[in-house]
Backbone:
């Protein structure tokens, strides 16, 4: 995206927020690559992949982040759209295990044109303290080296548990300080950052250069701080409808070097495409090609 269009982006973003919040608009925000994490439409996409993906395209989104477990089922329909396959979530039992399964997954997603392979989630029963996070960092480094050798970038996707106190720091700090910058990046989920009581803007500054992907989500007011995923369905809001300062997040993300943005809403009150449309309507003036 050109510098001129980025400046246009900021001017429009500033016009949409009160002056007290427009002061953040110091540098132009980045790019037109506004996509959807397809987990949002998980309950409908396998019933009719073509209609679901066309619906996402018709709203105006340009990119998608897929989940590996249903990738081959939706791939024929995805190829018929203009949506760009950018990133794919691959279960940690595959992505971090190494061996033939990891090799096959990387070959598959690379052949399909994806650029990022994301470790999406660590099961509750596998979570622990400092030793667990250090062990996880070692696994991420190994997987990241393998991904890099295959022309992919490995990212780790956070939830809330990584922000619990661990030996005077947090699990995420342990991961970030024990992984190699050139092989392990972060996909920051701003909803879970906020649930854990942290400010996504400050974390984007802290991990500047490491955050390549961003999950754009919003959180209802009054959600209690916690270090797990046990939030009510109503906690998930369309982007721009909740308590997170989205304009400030976008500006911080640009400054931090975020490359791709994906709207995700884990739970929607009705038709997920309607929720995606509402989020897009809020964001569309902020992302220009």
Residues:
């Amino acid at each position: 995206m050109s510098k001129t269009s980025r400046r246009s982006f900021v001017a429009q973003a500033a016009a949409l927020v009160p002056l007290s919040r427009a002061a953040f608009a110091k540098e132009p925000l980045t790019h037109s690559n506004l996509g959807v994490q397809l987990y949002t439409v998980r309950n409908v996409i396998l019933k009719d992949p073509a209609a679901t993906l066309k619906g996402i395209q018709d709203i105006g989104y340009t990119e998608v982040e897929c989940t590996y477990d249903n990738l081959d089922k939706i791939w024929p329909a995805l190829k018929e759209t203009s949506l760009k396959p950018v990133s794919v979530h691959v279960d940690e039992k595959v992505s971090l295990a190494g061996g033939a399964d990891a090799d096959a997954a990387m070959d598959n997603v690379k052949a399909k044109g994806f650029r990022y392979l994301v470790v999406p989630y660590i099961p509750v029963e596998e979570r622990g303290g400092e030793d667990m996070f250090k062990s996880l960092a070692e696994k991420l480094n190994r997987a990241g080296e393998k991904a890099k050798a295959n022309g992919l970038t490995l990212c780790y996707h956070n939830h809330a548990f990584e922000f619990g106190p661990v030996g005077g720091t947090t699990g995420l700090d342990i991961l970030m300080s024990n992984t190699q910058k050139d092989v392990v990046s972060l996909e920051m989920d701003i909803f879970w950052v906020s649930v854990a009581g942290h400010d996504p803007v400050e974390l984007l500054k802290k991990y500047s250069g490491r955050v390549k992907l961003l999950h754009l989500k919003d959180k209802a007011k009054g959600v209690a701080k916690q270090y797990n995923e046990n939030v009510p369905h109503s906690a998930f809001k369309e982007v721009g409808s909740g308590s997170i300062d989205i304009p400030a997040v976008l500006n911080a993300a640009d400054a931090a070097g975020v490359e791709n943005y994906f709207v995700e809403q884990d739970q929607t009150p009705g038709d997920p495409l309607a929720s995606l449309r509402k989020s897009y309507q809020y964001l569309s003036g902020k992302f220009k090609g």
The radius of gyration is 18 Å. Residues 2-31 have pLDDT under 50 and may be disordered. The domain at 3-12+28-286 is CATH 3.20.20.150 (TIM Barrel). The first helix runs from residue 3 to 15.
